[in-house]
């Protein structure tokens, strides 16, 4: 069973937070309240979140300023944000400066089904990344136990060997392309199969390097 994801709800009005909780209850995730931008930043220091639902119009630190602080922090810059905006907010203003920073928006009054669907996608992405990291950590530990070697040096050797194989593959592909007569179809398919295997191996080694 996937670990429950944290979803941060940020709004200065309790009734709005209650409404968001009612909409998202069926997702069965951890819903965390924050009644201000400052409260949201504090919550983000304490836990990891799959997505943030952020009201734009709040006293003090508004949604835009809060988002700026979130995106400036190394730990939280990639956390998706869904702005909940009033009808009078220019949508171009919402995206200004944030287009490449995983920000979406919904205009009030919003469709509860649309909101729930958007949040569900971000939760699934978050949980998929968590599973990949967990699997990479387990594989690193198993490799270390089985080989008695440091995983970092082991993955380094794997990367080096993969580079050698890729070089040989490239030479083989060039020979096929420049051959005076049509190459054997079985040879071509064998090279393609090896390419696919190397792609999968590369993905695995990259996950090992990226695991904390």
What does this structure look like?
- The chain has 212 residues and is an alpha/beta fold.
- 59% of the residues lie in helices and 12% in strands.
- It is built from 7 helices and 5 strands, in the order βαβαβαβαβααα.
- The protein has helices spanning 14-24, 37-46, 63-72, 91-95, 112-147, 151-178, 185-210, and strands spanning 6-10, 30-34, 51-55, 81-85, 103-107.
- Strand 4, helix 4 and strand 5 (103-107) form a beta-alpha-beta unit.
- The longest helix has 36 residues, at 112-147.
- The two termini are 22 Å apart.
- The model has no long low-confidence stretch (mean pLDDT 79).
Keywords:
single chain; 212 residues; alpha/beta; 5-stranded parallel sheet; 7 helices; 12% strand; elongated
List the helices and strands and how they pair.
Elements lengths: L5 E5 L3 H11 L5 E5 L2 H10 L4 E5 L7 H10 L8 E5 L5 H5 L7 E5 L4 H36 L3 H28 L6 H26 L2
Parallel strand pairs: 1-2, 1-3, 3-4, 4-5
Q: How would you summarize this macromolecular structure in one to three sentences?
A:
By secondary structure, the protein is an alpha/beta fold. It has seven helices and five strands, in the order E-H-E-H-E-H-E-H-E-H-H-H.
